[in-house]
């Protein structure tokens, strides 16, 4: 597939369920000059659709990203009941941070239609989809307008894990919420990069990271400081982490510079019928790396360059 010139910023649509780490993904996508953030869509996940949509609008208002379409998507997974992550993200989905009232009106379109319209309005190979929540909107967009599968440059998603789970011993939250949607996205035939827990559990917001952000001393840096503090408390209490893994911006960082996330090609299957393993992402890492496989899996993170990108994004908005 033809791709955009290497020097031009990467055009992305971010589909998110903010969420503390989704907020950092929005920040990085908005502030980094290598990204052209075309649109944001929301999906029920960390909290209900209504709550995460309000959070998305508040975060974008705080960041000054007020001139892009934002549309709300699906309230629930394709098949399974709604699942939220209140233990990690709180009752609001963004507990512990001060958000302004939204200064942006919601686009009247459904997120699925905004995804389709955005992809079809650009040349083939121009738009990258970056989902950082359950994959319901992306799966439905591919089903409603199959032409987007050919047209999208790649799907770079935060979700899954090869050797780790967080919502269950083997399943990651975004995939577990809507495993049927994830199966559709992995099987569609477009290029997919799965940035999962093997990568994101290295993106720890340590006290050193918090200090670098704090030194910038601006409304945006104070907001990120609050995020890290609240996220850190939840991850310590619920999952026993010393510092919180800031998952979602890892997918944006890969789009900015693929060298930041080490990947390898591997067939990916989502477990849909497991007694104890539903939502597990099964990566076939046997033998030599296949050459004809359209799915890649993240296996490592350049931690220093990742945090340099995030701190640089905060600095640009300070
Ligand atoms: C993923 O689940 C959500 O709670 C986070 O926002 C992230 O997208 C990590 O498993
Ligand atoms: Ca998320």
Say how many strands there are. Answer: 10
Bound molecules: beta-D-ribofuranose, calcium ion
Shape: globular
Uncertain stretches: none
Strand order, main sheet: write it out.
Answer: 3-2-1-4-5-6-10-7
What does this structure look like?
With 318 residues, this protein is α/β, with parallel strands linked by helices. The protein has one domain (10-316): Alpha-Beta Complex (Inosine-uridine Nucleoside N-ribohydrolase, Chain A), CATH 3.90.245. The protein is 39% helix and 16% strand. The protein is built from 13 helices and ten strands. The strands form two sheets. An eight-stranded mixed beta sheet has the order 3-2-1-4-5-6-10-7, sandwiched between helices. Strands 8-9 form a two-stranded antiparallel ribbon. α1 (20-31) runs parallel beside α2 and α5 (136-144) packs across α8. The longest helix is centred in the last third of the chain and has 21 residues, at 219-239. It is globular. The relative contact order is 0.17. The mean pLDDT is 97. Calcium ion is lined by residues 16-17, 19, 21-22, 46, 132-133, 248. Residues 16-17, 19, 21-22, 46, 132-133, 248 line the site of calcium ion.
SSE topology:
Layout: E1 10-16, H1 20-31, E2 35-42, H2 49-63, E3 70-72, H3 86-89, H4 111-120, E4 127-131, H5 136-144, H6 147-151, E5 154-158, H7 173-177, H8 179-187, E6 192-195, H9 197-200, H10 207-214, H11 219-239, H12 249-256, E7 261-265, E8 267-270, E9 281-284, E10 295-301, H13 303-316
Parallel strand pairs: 1-2, 1-4, 2-3, 4-5, 5-6, 6-10
Antiparallel strand pairs: 7-10, 8-9
């Amino acid at each position: 597939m033809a791709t955009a010139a290497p020097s031009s910023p990467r055009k992305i649509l971010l589909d998110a369920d903010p969420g503390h780490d989704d907020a950092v993904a929005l920040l990085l996508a908005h502030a980094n000059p290598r990204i052209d953030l075309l649109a944001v869509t929301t999906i029920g996940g960390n909290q209900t659709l209504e709550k995460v949509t309000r959070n998305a609008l508040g975060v974008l208002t705080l960041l000054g990203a007020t001139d892009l379409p934002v549309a709300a998507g699906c309230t629930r997974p394709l098949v399974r009941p709604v699942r939220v992550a209140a233990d990690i993200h709180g009752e609001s989905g963004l507990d512990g941070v001060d958000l302004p009232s939204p200064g942006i009106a919601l686009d009247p379109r459904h997120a699925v239609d905004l995804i389709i319209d955005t992809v079809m309005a650009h040349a083939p190979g121009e738009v990258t989809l970056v989902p950082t929540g359950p994959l319901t909107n992306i799966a439905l967009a591919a089903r409603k307008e199959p032409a987007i599968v050919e047209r999208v440059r790649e799907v770079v998603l935060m979700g899954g894990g090869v050797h780790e789970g967080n919502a269950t011993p083997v399943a990651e939250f975004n995939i577990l919420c809507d495993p049927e949607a994830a199966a559709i996205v992995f099987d569609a035939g477009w290029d997919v990069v799965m940035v999962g827990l093997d990568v994101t559990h290295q993106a720890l917001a340590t006290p050193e990271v918090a200090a670098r952000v704090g030194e910038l001393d601006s409304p945006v840096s104070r907001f990120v400081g609050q995020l890290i503090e609240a996220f850190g408390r939840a991850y310590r209490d619920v999952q026993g982490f010393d510092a919180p893994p800031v998952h979602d911006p890892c997918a944006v960082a890969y789009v900015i510079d693929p060298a930041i996330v080490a990947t390898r090609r591997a067939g990916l299957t989502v477990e849909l019928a497991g007694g104890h393993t539903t939502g597990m992402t099964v990566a076939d890492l046997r033998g030599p790396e296949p050459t004809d496989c359209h799915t890649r899996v993240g296996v490592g993170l350049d931690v220093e360059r990742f945090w340099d990108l995030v701190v640089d994004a905060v600095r640009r908005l300070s």
